[in-house]
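Page 37, continued from 36.
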């Protein structure tokens, strides 16, 4: 019967289409696997950052704990530590009780880790389209954020490190805040650094996201990725940009490594001559515990460095997330796989 023949033909075409698609996927995976096999040639750097837990500014510590921290930073060529000092309240303030140990921390850093920049790591869920906590669109909130920054610089911090999320590539209020913060930090001889998500895969996708997917924070909102133009605008305002390259959620080491390599090469080509760049690497297990770990991230970043025609004009390195999840074996792995031979 004719209708049976049509069904058979449709099923046959569907089968061939599926087989063709699976074949292309297999070729893609094989190509990425083959790309992943060679050992990277480029070594890492001695300019690196570390996100550190809130207890350092919030709780007292022993002299030995400060001494151990200083030794850890020196041994692992950490030049910048982002000490979690917030988060901001909705109005842009941070209660003093949250950072009651900050002055002592800064004094001990001067003794045990001279030359390492201790930055106040401040952020919050940015209010977007009714979601979130801190409304950066409100000038009064931005004023209080700046006043809070000044408090931490008065305590002796060497810089301000912002981590507001989500930040979308049309967020002019965030850029206004960066302009004002840069004026403050430069007047104090301090550093302004920004944590931001990795670049979009394709800038042209942004209008589609805006048209069909709501913004905010969570699984069912479109991802807050900067476009190339927006990342340049951030880089022109900040002394350091830390790319939150982690939380890859890819099933194989080669795919996860390709992610780190791609974003390293693309980011450094884009802003590596404008500002210091830290590519974020994880020392924790993501919620989807597949292939992402410190070894894969470091190898992928080095493969991305291999692809560059020349080193960036500005310093670059990795940002380790985080101090409270990094065990001694991972520090040893980091030294062996990242630091230049003369530094290990």
């Amino acid at each position: 019967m004719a209708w049976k023949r049509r069904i058979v033909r449709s099923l046959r075409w569907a089968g061939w289409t599926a087989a063709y698609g699976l074949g292309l996927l297999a070729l893609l995976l094989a190509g990425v696997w083959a790309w992943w096999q060679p050992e990277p040639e480029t070594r890492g750097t001695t300019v690196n950052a570390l996100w550190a837990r809130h207890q350092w500014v919030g709780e007292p510590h022993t002299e030995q704990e400060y001494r151990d921290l200083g030794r850890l930073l020196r041994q692992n060529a950490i030049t910048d530590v982002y000490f979690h000092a917030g988060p901001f309240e909705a109005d842009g303030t941070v209660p003093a009780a949250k950072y009651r140990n900050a002055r002592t921390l800064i004094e001990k850093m001067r003794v045990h880790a001279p030359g390492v920049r201790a930055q106040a790591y401040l952020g919050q869920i940015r209010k977007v389209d009714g979601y979130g906590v801190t409304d950066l669109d409100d000038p009064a909130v931005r004023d209080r954020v700046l006043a809070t920054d000044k408090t931490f610089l008065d305590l002796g911090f060497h810089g301000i490190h912002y981590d507001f999320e989500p930040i979308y590539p049309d967020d002019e209020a965030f850029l206004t805040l960066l302009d004002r913060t840069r004026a403050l930090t430069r007047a104090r001889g301090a550093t302004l650094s920004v944590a931001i998500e990795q670049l979009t895969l394709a800038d042209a996708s942004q209008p589609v996201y805006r048209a069909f997917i709501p913004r905010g924070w969570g699984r069912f909102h479109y991802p807050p990725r900067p476009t190339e133009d927006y990342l340049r605008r951030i880089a022109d305002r900040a002394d350091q940009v830390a790319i939150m390259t982690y939380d890859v959620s890819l099933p194989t080491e080669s795919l996860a490594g390709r992610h780190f390599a791609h974003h390293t090469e693309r980011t450094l080509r884009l802003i590596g001559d404008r500002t210091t760049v830290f590519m974020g690497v994880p020392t924790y297990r993501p919620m989807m515990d597949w292939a992402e770990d410190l070894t894969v991230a470091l190898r992928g970043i080095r493969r991305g460095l291999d692809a560059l025609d020349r080193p960036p004009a500005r310093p670059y390195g990795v940002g380790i997330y985080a101090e409270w999840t990094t065990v001694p074996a991972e520090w040893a792995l980091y030294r062996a796989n990242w630091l230049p031979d003369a530094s290990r």
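The CA atoms of residues 11 and 188 lie 71 Å apart. Flag for discussion at group meeting. The first strand starts at residue 48 and ends at 52.
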